[in-house]
Amino acid sequence: MALKVELKPNECIIIGNCVVTNTEQRARLLIDGDNVPILREKDIMTPATADTPAKLVYLAVQLMYLSPKPEVNHGTYFSLLRDIVTAVPSSWAIIEGINTNILSGDLYRALKEARKLIAYEKKLLDQHQDTIAKTNAA
User: Fold this and answer.
1) Which of 16, 25, 36, 54 is surrounded by the most beta carbons within 10 Å?
2) Is 21 found in the same domain as 58?
């Protein structure tokens, strides 16, 4: 079954190893193919925007998803995971979900799980900032 994608004006999408950029008008695409990686602009992480450990994990999983040889990025991914689990052991349940999907070959679902890690990291950072603000106010 074909995937229907509607692009906003000037929106980008990655299809396979190509970046497609829309013109000034909305566009509707029908993409038909097996196992072709597709990422909408809102789901694309760049090295410049990967500014936290969880975002770096997402970037590593994204590179696996887009690569014809995902295993090339495994070393980087597992190194990043080691650092996160050491710093935040409570993140293990989310990381386990990412790992399960990577091992089963479902890299798109692994990306979705990596988004949960980013949200969890943000929650922890926000809590930390609140604690600092309360300490400074006292």
Assistant:
1) 54
2) no
